[in-house]
Amino acid sequence: MGLLVDYLYIVLLNREAGDRKEKEMFQSGVFNYVDLLDKAADASWLRHQAISNNITNATTPGYKRQEVAFESVLQKALGSSRYVPTDFKVSRALNYSLSPRLFQDFSSYSYRLDKNNVDIETEEVMLAENQLKYNGLLDSINDEFSNMQVAMK
After folding, report:
1. What is the mean pLDDT of each run of 10 residues along the chain (153 residues)?
2. Angle of helix 32-56 relative to helix 120-152, nearest 10 degrees?
């Protein structure tokens, strides 16, 4: 019975030490790039939905196209100083409210009589561009996890 108690005690100590190491790793900024890429991927997904809605409603009278603003918010959060290390910029950017903003584009002039401002060809090009960005973001996230796996070996 004493051996079992000693064994359980050692397992619990190792688990607590592992939990502390995990907590330290999460607080150390190891995942900052992944978190930032994740936010960008979420914005790209929202943009995909907006463009899909635009394409779906291309023949709806009075429909105004939707757009997503994220890159300008990200650029502002990262700052423009060349003399600040990228790690610091990424860490600082995560403290901002980096959420994509969906808005209706009323500024695009409609050449159509039904006041719809969706140009189907432009939307299809934007959809393809966004798909390439999204795939690139997912590849970057996977690369970050691969780099972490290599570093942990």
Report:
1. 49 52 52 88 96 96 93 85 80 83 81 88 96 93 87 79
2. 160
